[in-house]
Design goal:
The protein has 4 helices and 7 strands. The protein is α+β, with helices and mostly antiparallel strands and 156 residues long. Strands 1, 2, 3, 4, 5, 6 and 7 form a 7-stranded mixed beta sheet that branches. The protein is globular and about 45 Å long. The structure holds a DNA duplex (12 and 12 nucleotides).
Length: 156
DNA sequence: GCCAACGTTGGC
DNA sequence: GCCAACGTTGGC
């Protein structure tokens, strides 16, 4: 099993939105970056775990944990002219963008803010903390995952 | 609001 | 294939 971190701007789609979904499950549409696309398409597998991260807000923070419940399939929003994620270069015959489905797994008792992650020993090489890193779907090592998970009690 | 870092586009 | 210009991300 592998571990990931996915960023979202809560003004667009928040942890609270996620919890309110039917069966607390959502598709992760709108990835329009090739590096992130390759991870979504090729690497994320059923049962993998994901940190759900709020970006742009103050402070940015990891909110909780989700589980991958469906592996990659074409992001059909790319085919919808009226959708902000529309991309004419993606077609049903030759899809360019992909998404996965994730389901709520557990919440941290309180969000883990970015400054705390920066101060936590063992996370120095985390992709999230690398200068200039803006990958919105990124790998987390098993060691990093374990360290972060121990920072807070989980509630489910 | 600023701006550094990064990604993409398009002319050549 | 190069690279300047432009657009976006995202922390501060």
């Amino acid at each position: 099993m592998n571990y990931w971190l996915m960023k979202t701007e809560p003004s667009t789609y928040s942890w609270q939105n996620f919890l309110a979904e039917p069966e607390q499950t959502t598709y992760w549409e709108g990835i329009r970056n090739y590096q992130a696309r390759n991870i979504i398409r090729d690497q994320i597998k059923l049962g993998d775990l994901v940190f759900f991260y709020h970006s742009v807000v103050k402070p940015p923070a990891i909110m909780g944990i989700a589980k991958v419940v469906r592996e990659s399939y074409p992001d059909h929003y790319a085919w919808d002219q009226d959708n902000p994620y529309y991309d004419p270069k993606s077609t049903p015959e030759n899809p360019r963008w992909f998404m996965v489905d994730i389901q709520y797994q557990a919440a941290f008792e309180s969000p883990i803010p970015l400054p705390e992650l920066k101060q936590t020993p063992g996370l120095e090489n985390m992709v999230l903390l690398k200068k200039g890193s803006r990958l919105s779907v990124q790998p987390v090592t098993a060691a990093e995952w374990k360290i972060i998970e121990r920072l807070r009690p989980l509630v489910s």
